[in-house]
Amino acid sequence: MSGRGGNNRRGYRRKGSEHTWQETPRHNRKSEGNLRYDKRGGGVCERIQWVPPVMPAEPLPTPVCPYCGKAIKDIASAIEDKTTNEPAHFDCVISKVAKGEALEKGDSIVYIGGGRFGVVHFNNSQAAPSFKIKKILEWEDKENRAEWRKTISDHYSVT
After folding, report:
1. How far apart are CA 86 and CA 93, in angstroms?
2. pLDDT band for position 35 (50/70/90)?
3. Which residue has the higher pLDDT, 22 or 81?
4. Short-list 38, 14, 16, 15, CA closest to 28
5. pLDDT of residue 14
6. Considering Cα of 78, then 83, then 138, then 101, what sign does the dihedral take?
7. What is the pLDDT of residues 134-156, one digit of tens each?
8. Is residue 91 very low, low, confident or very high in pLDDT (cuts 50, 70, 90)?
9. How many CB atoms lie within 10 A of CB 128?
10. CA–CA dist 27, 110 (Å, integer)
11. Distance in angstroms (rounded) separating the CA atoms of residues 115 and 112
12. Are 151 and 61 in contact (CB under 8 A)?
């Protein structure tokens, strides 16, 4: 052991720089105003000003469900009707699908994503709970998006 304590490294100094970061005058520091320290360039540069996105002026539509006849208040959770391509309540569509399927004990209708529903059998085993998809029902056409979905997506993704 040398007996000297502390750090034996020399201070970092960039070529062509007349002073280090610690010696930078107070008016050029990162915390001052609209400036920030550029890690890649090694200098102080002007900070880009954030501009908030402009929200659409028109409100979200409130269509009527073709199955129950009530207004759809949460249009983001609506699903497309298979025949008319209009929005419908998610719960109304699940009940319509359930009426058309013969369900056995342990079966239920679940949404499996991508506009598809499935007849799923859940095992009652406490040791290893599992499920099996017995049947997949295509409900929405993935290739053709409904026009009402485009209107809604414009409201939620304005950035």
Report:
1. 12
2. low
3. 81
4. 38
5. 56
6. positive
7. 999 988 887 887 888 877 777 77
8. very high
9. 6
10. 61
11. 8
12. yes
d(CA 151, CA 119): 31
Nearest to 73 by CA among 61, 82, 84, 56: 61
Task: Look up the pTM and report it.
Answer: 0.58
Please give the residue that has the higher pLDDT: either 38 or 18.
38
The secondary structure of 114-144 as a DSSP string is: TTEEEEEEEP--SSS--EEEEEEEE-S-SSS
How does 73-87 read in b/e, with b if 16+ C-beta sit within 10 Å?
A: eebeebbbbbeeebb
Strand 116-122: give its sheet, edge to edge: 107-113, 116-122, 131-138
The set of residues, in sequence order, having a beta carbon less than 8 Å from that of 101 and lying 6+ positions away, is 109, 119, 135, 137
- Rounded CA separation 132/104 (Å): 13
